[in-house]
Design goal:
By secondary structure, the protein is of the alpha/beta class. The chain has a single domain, classed as Rossmann fold. A seven-stranded parallel beta sheet has the order 3-2-1-4-5-6-7, sandwiched between helices. Strand 4, helix 4 and strand 5 form a beta-alpha-beta unit. Helix 1 crosses helix 8 and helix 4 runs parallel beside helix 5.
């Protein structure tokens, strides 16, 4: 088993949901934590909880803000030492029907779910390459491998998957590993959080109950945190949170091959 004791991790969206689950799993392995989130109240609660287990620093960060991201990266490394483990996890569930699409909605969806990942990579990857060590985990979705009708979401998540796969090929020679997390349903409040912070791309009210029920059918955040670290132990290119994706992946693969 790989020993990350004494390492430092930077987790975006780290105060809630999957990010918090990852942070908890890391904390119990002796990893110091830099947690970044837009929700300051959740950051305070996460710090209070996790500081009983490991060293924790928290930062109010909108992952779209490149300048602040770089500043926070510097602050985190001054406080905790070199960041060896990067989790580009922050994201939203944007939604708009095809007749409701606007440039502003595209810009918001891609800025948070794709550019936020790119900003994390640019802030930390050069440091990892220089030190010839590091692990990057980018959070995408099963919807980044098998599309669904949510155009804004699927577009960004497919991009994160492609980015991660290509990045993995590029950085292996520099001693850096890359995995992409492709969760199915996970019991989080991401729908409510998206509605609260980005109302312009929130799910329609009549869709919310069904989507919320779907998410609650999946594993909890602590179970997912353990799945992520298990995937990292195996250096898996893709990390999944259940078997629900399998029939959809098989159907898509068969359809692709049939088109050759």
């Amino acid at each position: 088993m790989r020993d990350w004791t004494g390492s430092a991790a930077f987790v975006t969206g780290g105060a809630r949901g999957i990010g918090l689950g990852i942070a908890r799993a890391l904390a119990h392995r002796g990893v110091s934590l830099a947690l970044a989130d837009v929700d300051e109240e959740s950051l305070a609660r996460a710090e209070e909880d996790l500081s009983q287990v490991t060293a924790v620093e928290t930062y109010r960060l909108d992952v779209r803000d490149r300048e602040t991201f770089e500043q926070v990266a510097d602050q985190a490394e001054r406080a905790l030492g070199p960041v060896d483990l990067l989790f580009n996890n922050a994201g939203i569930v944007p939604y708009a029907t095809v007749t409701e699409l606007t440039y502003d909605k595209w810009d918001l969806a891609l800025a948070v779910n794709l550019t936020g990942v790119i900003n994390g990579i640019q802030a930390f990857l050069p440091r990892m390459i220089e030190r010839r060590t590091g692990y990057v985990v980018n959070t995408a979705s099963v919807a980044g491998l098998v599309s669904d009708p949510n155009l804004l979401y699927a577009t960004a998540k497919f991009a994160v998957v492609g980015l991660s796969e290509s990045l993995r090929l590029n950085v292996a020679e520099h001693g850096v590993d890359v995995s992409v997390l492709c969760p199915g349903p996970v019991d989080t409040d991401i729908v409510a959080n998206t509605s609260a912070s980005h109302a312009a791309v929130a799910l329609r009210d009549d869709y919310v109950p069904a989507v919320a029920a779907f998410l609650k059918s999946g594993p909890g955040i602590d179970a997912v945190g353990e799945m992520v670290l298990a995937g990292m132990e195996k250096r898996s290119p893709w990390i999944f949170t259940g078997y629900d994706a399998r029939p959809h992946l098989e159907k898509r693969t068969a359809a692709l091959l049939d088109c050759l």
